[in-house]
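Q: What does the assembly look like in three dimensions?
Context provided by user:
Components: two
Sequences:
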Amino acid sequence: MSELFQQLQPYLDRAFALNAACTLFNWDQYNAPKDSIENTSKIIGILSGEQYRALINDEVKNLLPRLSTPEAQKELAFHEKAIIRLLNKQFRKLSLIPPEEYQAYSSLLVQAYPIWEAAKNNNDYASYAPVLEQIITYSKKFAGYAQKEGQTLYDAALDDYEEGFTTKILDDFFGRLSAALTPLVKKISQKQDLISTQCLHKFYPADTQEKFCHFLAEYIGFDYNRGLTSESEHPFTTQLHNHDVRFTNHYYENKLDSAIFSAIHEGGHGLYEQGIDDKITLTIVGSGTSMGMHESQSRFYENNIGRSREFWKPIYQKLVDMYPEQLSQVSLDEFYKAINASCPSLIRTEADELTYPFHIMIRYEIEKMIFDGQVTVDQLPALWNQKYEEYLGITPSNDTEGILQDMHWSGGSFGYFPSYAIGSAIAAQIYHHMETVMPIKDYLEQGNLAPIREYLKEHIHRFGCCKNTQEILMDMTGESFNPEYYIKYLTDKYSSLYEL
Amino acid sequence: MSELFQQLQPYLDRAFALNAACTLFNWDQYNAPKDSIENTSKIIGILSGEQYRALINDEVKNLLPRLSTPEAQKELAFHEKAIIRLLNKQFRKLSLIPPEEYQAYSSLLVQAYPIWEAAKNNNDYASYAPVLEQIITYSKKFAGYAQKEGQTLYDAALDDYEEGFTTKILDDFFGRLSAALTPLVKKISQKQDLISTQCLHKFYPADTQEKFCHFLAEYIGFDYNRGLTSESEHPFTTQLHNHDVRFTNHYYENKLDSAIFSAIHEGGHGLYEQGIDDKITLTIVGSGTSMGMHESQSRFYENNIGRSREFWKPIYQKLVDMYPEQLSQVSLDEFYKAINASCPSLIRTEADELTYPFHIMIRYEIEKMIFDGQVTVDQLPALWNQKYEEYLGITPSNDTEGILQDMHWSGGSFGYFPSYAIGSAIAAQIYHHMETVMPIKDYLEQGNLAPIREYLKEHIHRFGCCKNTQEILMDMTGESFNPEYYIKYLTDKYSSLYEL
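A: Here is the predicted structure of the complete assembly.
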């Protein structure tokens, strides 16, 4: 290690450890006592402030340019160069935010979560609107600090989640998606009686679901010696490092597919984090490279693999054995069709693969309008409902199943939603590529998922943030981001399913 | 707030938040994935180092004396003065230890725990002796740094856990205890057939125990909106602040009393922490004032109240209803006697109220000899066994049930054990005092525990570390520490139980 880098190391260690502490507090919040939030949010606020100061200080400011010269770079290992690159980016972004604003914002977010949660439970958007307004103000302010020449304000927000994906690229992406998929969705809405999902809506006791989901996560390769699972209202994945990866699930006793595909989805995120190289796991480049790439891994497992006939062939009988009364009369083919049925619906997280991107388009368009100042917080519920009618032909009957459904905005995550659609598109691109290098369907039919996981680890997971999304795609598939694979995948799959 | 104190505030906040983060990591360890320890311990190591540096630095070194002058003190609030007092003590103690020794010692302790654990499991004292020797060397060295004029080396160690309790006071305390209780223990050992504990050793399913323990904790006043409970091998209590207090329990299906009295004991610790004033909870004086005072609260609830006839009168039927098969033929009186049966035994944590202090006396005498250089590490097992024979008339058949039973020494906690006995004695003193100010037995019989809890909160809990043990006792009872109440309590209770 170069002497100069060694001088930087304590700052990196401190920032990493403080970030891990904040992560643990956030994880713990889901089980923490009801009345603990106020005090705990102060603690998290102080720790975030410390995390900020660990990187944004005069010593780092002095070291960074010296570590960025061509001579200094020559002495650095691959992952050290990546650390300097990321640190330069973070330093620029964070040093533009005054520390007291950053601290106040962190505290605000901790308080916002329960307010959003209560508002959602009580269908009471008005009680949430003031805090949402504050979060939006901060988010726009911070995006303004980061905004570069030629960027829109929303571009600056997008850059936090998916480097290089601008509104220009996304407008084109969503435009092509919409053009190709809208007619498909329309045709399928007229053939609804072709596939029944009734077999998924019998009574499925939660404890058995939990056991099957544990099996599924292990089946795709999630290592329970290096991770754990828990329950929360909305499934999510988080990690302290590559040996401590955690995800949650939620069990609905009348919706068998919900927890199953959450387990595979979050398990996919988990595999990414467990696959990070030991050398970088305790560093700032030791996690998935972007939201879109992360989402590509979860969706690759959930959809491209997890909703395929081949995936279920070796394991469907296990599910039937666990629920003989409910499933012994349901064939693998019926089950396959049921888990792939498409129908416009109101809740994003419950949407099928085909209508899902429309949920994202709606949020994308609304976020653009928020950042362009074209809509006020008070107008959001009506705008939301209008977009659902426009794109999916349905209107939420209340805000709980409308604008209050997602927690993202309460966490300040503006610019995050597009990553879901980007991830789906990348997943299709990767799947297409993998078909050219291995007999992926045969592996699935044999229940042999190791070669798939190993390939992803080798070409994506182990690098963490040492490569960005486009670099990974180029190195792996020889092609940059290309949404055509996604459009073709959905068109082929749903044309076949609905005999179009 | 004085301007000078305001300058200190960020350091205090940082130290508190980092300490809370370490607390949360330690709590989380009990559920963390098996293979996470190595990486996570690095994170905890970094956070502890930061915590040390948050207080031990040139700015604090400069501010502290300026905040300690009579003029500066005049401007401070009561709790701010307490913060300066405690910080002066901590600063003095920590700054006397050379950082490299502190670091080496911390690393040694991390290694020592698994060595002790393995030695205990394998009954192999020899494998533990070398590391114990090193820990003793460090402990004596550090006590030497802290030692003040006129203090023995062991006094300096005691001061870490119980300010103001010297060997002089403790020699007198244990001398009086031994003189009064030894004949009692002897007489009772000849009347063992008077009380049967058989009713506690039927099969008691763990899930029902858990429900009853939850009820018990709430019954004594533990607020589950501001706390939670979990499971671990050894029950313990910890807290992030007064709105987030957590304790664990362990359920043995053939020992009904174990979890029940752990719940009341840890619940007592929990009430102390939940009773801390909001004004100080996020500061370094925002937790119980000493180990002895903390232990007084847990033992007051567990023993003085929890093992009384009056306590069980309104709730015993509830326990019978939960275990009708096991308990419907067991009268309240039989149950009361069973939970108070006394019999010399080898394991401290399972000892009854009467023989318990002898376990502490033995450890106290051995620790004094260690610090006076009167015994070598090799001689400790034989000395241990000899003392058990001398005080309790029984000899461990191996070191696992002898000197290896406690983890304390492997963690460098020399001077800690006396706090357990001090706590029991304070509990008796407080109980005696409370009988003079309220109809405590009537309250218990009515199932009305609120006045008891409120009184303790008002006179003890809310102050945190703003008063020390002796100050609390003086202000509350008008008397300093007086072990006679404890001796009288045990003598009366056990004379009556065993018809002496």
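Follow-up: The two ends of chain A are 60 Å apart (CA to CA).
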